[in-house]
Design goal:
Blueprint: H1 23-31, H2 45-57, E1 62-65, H3 68-79, E2 91-95, E3 99-109, H4 114-133, E4 136-148
Parallel strand pairs: 3-4
Antiparallel strand pairs: 1-3, 2-3
Helix pairs in contact: 2-4
Length: 164
Amino acid sequence: MTETPQRNRPENPDKESTGGDSRSNSLTKRGGGDPATRGRTTIADGVVEKIAGMAARDVVGVHAMGSGLSRTFGAVRDRVPGGSKSVTRGVKAEVGESQTALDLEIVVDYGVSIADVARDVRENVVAAVERMTGLEVVEVNIAVSDVKLPDEDDDTDQPEPRLQ
């Protein structure tokens, strides 16, 4: 964008000159106010689901996300070449214009307080989603679908290769 020198602009004889740059007044009046208020931002459900899934996994005591069946299918998908881990597994978001509601399905480690883990997950998810999206989180419903016992095999572990 090129600027026109100040001396080439016609001056308004009705206004007194303050000696300052008159361009700042004309820019805010021309566009209709603060640039941050022009237009609309929409956030997809999947974006909120990813943020919530990452925030929930960061909490100590959360072993995995999703039900046993979805974790099994997810483990198979993860092993497919080119496949990637789904951070949205076990997370469902409903996003409105200014609010969102979340449903999480988690697996906790054996020996942890489920109430404490659920509280920590809620706090972490609400903080992350509100900070990153600006949406108000109205509720975070948590369903604990399983407890990971110390001697159980982990669904997400890679199998030992058959050939050496």
